[in-house]
Amino acid sequence: MDVTVEPLRHEHAAAIVAAEDDETIRWLSGGRSTVVGTEAYVDRLAREAAAGAGKRAFAVLVDGDCVGTIDYDPDVRDGLDPGDVNIAYGIAPWMRGRGVTAIAVAQICDRIRSGGVGARAAIRADVRNTASAKVAERAGFTFVREFASTTDTDADGRPVRFRLFVRPL
Ligand SMILES: CC(C)(COP(=O)(O)OP(=O)(O)OC[C@H]1O[C@@H](n2cnc3c(N)ncnc32)[C@H](O)[C@@H]1OP(=O)(O)O)[C@@H](O)C(=O)NCCC(=O)NCCS
Question: Which domain range does residue 120 map to?
């Protein structure tokens, strides 16, 4: 199994939409994706990057096939310390449970490090999202603390509680 990441492009959009399920929507995208909407997302990130924003999104490929996305964003501050770079991810249901995401996270950490983007990689796993916390641990991240989000709320309007995991770069 060959896991690679590459910058997200329009060509990945159909595969990203196909890889999305209710878990992806619940924990990552927040709503059903479309090909047109995903292409627009790629364009928006490019515009924002040109204007100085730090977020970068990538396709996760397994044996050359796009099976999900991973991004890093040094501009996310909720619950993080200065120099922390937030990482978020989602993998197709049929590829889960094989350790793919932790491999992709390691490659994203390499990109953050070589880009000099920050001092630590950070993963904020919703306390209810045990699979995401497992990815952080599998990728060599250390649990730091649990915190109440100042930006995200649950269905009842209460602040989401996240577990923060970090890894030096
Ligand atoms: C979180 C997610 C990216 C994990 O990816 P992955 O490549 O399957 O990660 P792993 O193979 O390391 O498995 C992690 C855990 O997922 C659970 N898992 C295992 N097989 C699974 C399957 N077929 N389906 C769902 N979850 C599974 C297990 O708890 C596993 O931990 P374990 O191996 O210690 O038992 C994936 O479940 C996903 O895309 N979820 C929806 C989006 C999301 O939650 N993103 C996180 C936002 S930061």
Answer: 3-168
